[in-house]
Amino acid sequence: MHIDKSYQEIFVANKKWVEKKNNENPDFFSHLATEQNPDYLYIGCSDSRVHANEIMGLEPGQVFVHRNIANMVVNTDLNALSVINYGVEYLNVKYIIVCGHYNCGGIKAAMQPRDMGILNPWLRNVRDVYRLHEKELDAIENPNDRYNKLVEINVYEQCLNVIKTAEVQKSYLEKGYPRVAGWVYNLNEGVLIDLKIDFEKELNRIRKIYDLTKGK
């Protein structure tokens, strides 16, 4: 079967990749196996067309990655929160980047008034973002433009969710990092777009209600 052949070709490609890396740098894998010291934590979408290392031009070991449908940071998702905790407290990342992308299937699904089965609880988080910004989004007549705007607004809201975490607040106030940034990846052009979120402004605004810097 074609799928079986395709599966086996992965291991052939892996061997070629290992040979290429060893030729470029004989110490590549021994160094990589010793430790990881990434400056960046990337929270992105699970979409198969978007891979953090490639679009950022970084090598293995340079970016710590968490991915899920529509690049969400949900306060009941222990997976995402554990990644943030580990990235901040143990890896000392300098930036936490939430990266969405245009043509996101998760965002599009959330904009459709239909029962999506097991996806409903997850997509509700995206729909809540729409509800918070309903007036602004409904004022956009073109459906595609409205869809792209929701991609951007969702990134902004997930950045706020990162800033709400105790680890990020405490670490930034004590060490000056990590900073939180929001990006959108344009699949049609391969370009990263910085939404230029004012991290310090948002942190100060968030702390009025979500200040978690006080000791227990």
Describe this structure in words.
- This protein has 216 residues and is of the alpha/beta class.
- The chain contains ten helices and five strands, in the order H-H-E-H-E-H-E-H-H-H-H-H-E-E-H.
- The chain has a five-stranded mixed β-sheet.
- The longest helix is centred in the first third of the chain and has 23 residues, at 2-24.
- The radius of gyration is 19 Å and the shape is globular.
Helices and strands: which structural class? alpha/beta
* Total number of strands: 5
Intertermini distance: 59 Å
Strands of the largest sheet, in order across it? 2-1-3-4-5
Please state roughly what percent of the residues sit in beta strands, choosing from under 5%, 5-15%, 15-25%, 25-35%, 35-45% or over 45%: 5-15%
Write down the overall geometry. globular
Integer-rounded radius of gyration: 19 Å
The mean pLDDT is 94
The largest sheet is: 5 strands, mixed
Q: Low-confidence stretches at least 5 residues in length (pLDDT < 50)?
A: none
Quaternary structure type: single chain
Order of helices and strands: HHEHEHEHHHHHEEH
Query: Number of helical runs?
Result: 10
Explain the layout of strands and helices:
Elements: H1 2-24, H2 28-34, E1 40-45, H3 52-56, E2 63-68, H4 78-89, E3 95-101, H5 105-110, H6 120-132, H7 134-138, H8 143-163, H9 166-175, E4 179-186, E5 191-194, H10 199-210
Parallel strand pairs: 1-2, 1-3, 3-4
Antiparallel strand pairs: 4-5
